[in-house]
């Protein structure tokens, strides 16, 4: 176990130092959450006039969306890095070495979690500049933990795609599924304001419960009802998508 953790951290550190060596890989995952925060809060601020908002700031309403998207980009980066390593032959060398193969999954997961901490911090600082205060110690911790959980889920999805496609050209597939999962939730309005097919899909979308818990911490009071639903949603996503990634790893090792 100690050996596995050491190798996993080594792979995570290798992934993190790519931020310095290849900033073009990381910068989009930092810029996009800020772009979403600024553009959404500006373009859709009139939605806050709906009675369901009860006078709440739409910028504060958008911050959880930006943190979740930042975490999603952190997870996508994990899959893209793995796909690049497969193409470059690094993964083949690691499989042939005594290193446990599970480290190919655990290492990028660690790196995705660390990246999500950074993007979440940047979004919260941007909110402070815009006049939105932090949601207290407990609420802020929940926002960070939910972001880490979503980064793990999206990393498992992206790595599962990379392990099957074995090419960086699969990056658009990684991205579009994450985008759809977020935008087909309560990304822009509460469930009470949604109608039609989007309302029905948002009710069964696990990302909805992540956003609602984060928004409860940001806008009002985070209760047990929101917290356990968000925790269950994260556990479901990480469990299912983790199995997807592990199945892809077994297929790669047998080739």
What features would you highlight for this structure?
255 residues; 11 helices; mainly alpha
List the helices and strands and how they pair.
Elements: H1 2-16, H2 18-21, H3 23-43, H4 58-88, H5 90-96, H6 103-129, H7 136-165, H8 171-183, H9 196-204, H10 206-219, H11 224-254
Helix pairs in contact: 1-6, 3-4, 3-6, 4-6, 4-7, 4-8, 4-10, 6-7, 7-8, 7-10, 7-11, 10-11
Describe the 3D structure.
The protein has 255 residues and is mainly alpha-helical. The chain has eleven helices and no strands. The protein has helices spanning 2-16, 18-21, 23-43, 58-88, 90-96, 103-129, 136-165, 171-183, 196-204, 206-219, 224-254. Helix 3 (23-43) packs antiparallel against helix 4 and helix 4 (58-88) packs across helix 10. The longest helix is centred in the N-terminal third of the chain and has 31 residues, at 58-88. The two termini are 26 Å apart. The relative contact order is 0.14.
Short précis:
The chain is mostly helical and 255 residues long. 79% of the residues lie in helices and 0% in strands. It starts with a helix and ends with a helix.
Q: Largest beta sheet, briefly?
A: none
Order of helices and strands: HHHHHHHHHHH
The fraction of residues in strands falls at: under 5%
Oligomer designation: single chain
Low-confidence stretches: none
Q: What is the radius of gyration?
A: 18 Å
Instruction: Tell me, briefly, the overall form.
Output: elongated
Mean pLDDT across every amino acid position: 85
Helix content: over 70%
| Count of β-strands | 0
Distance between the termini: 26 Å
The assigned structural class equals mainly alpha
Number of helical stretches of at least 4 residues: 11
């Amino acid at each position: 176990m100690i050996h596995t953790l050491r190798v996993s951290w080594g792979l995570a550190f290798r992934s993190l130092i790519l931020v310095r060596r290849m900033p073009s890989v990381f910068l989009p995952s930092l810029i996009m959450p800020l772009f979403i925060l600024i553009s959404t809060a500006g373009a859709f601020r009139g939605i806050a006039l709906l009675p369901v908002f009860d006078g709440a700031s739409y910028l504060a309403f958008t911050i959880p969306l930006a943190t979740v998207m930042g975490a999603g980009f952190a997870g996508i980066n994990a899959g893209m890095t793995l796909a690049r390593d497969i193409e470059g032959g690094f993964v083949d060398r690691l499989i042939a070495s005594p290193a446990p193969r599970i480290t190919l999954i655990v290492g990028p997961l660690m790196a995705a979690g660390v990246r999500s901490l950074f993007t979440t911090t940047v979004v919260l600082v941007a909110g402070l500049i815009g006049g939105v205060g932090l949601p207290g110690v407990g609420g802020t911790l929940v926002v960070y933990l939910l972001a880490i959980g979503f980064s793990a889920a999206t990393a498992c999805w992206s790595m599962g795609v990379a392990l099957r496609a074995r090419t960086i050209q699969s990056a658009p597939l990684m991205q579009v599924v994450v985008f759809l999962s977020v935008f087909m939730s309560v990304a822009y309005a509460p469930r009470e304001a949604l109608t039609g097919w989007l309302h029905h899909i948002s009710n069964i979308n696990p990302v909805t419960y992540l956003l609602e818990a984060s928004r409860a911490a940001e806008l009002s009071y985070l209760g047990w009802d929101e917290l356990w639903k968000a925790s269950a949603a994260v556990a479901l996503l990480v469990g299912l998508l983790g199995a997807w990634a592990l199945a892809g790893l077994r297929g790669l090792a047998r080739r």
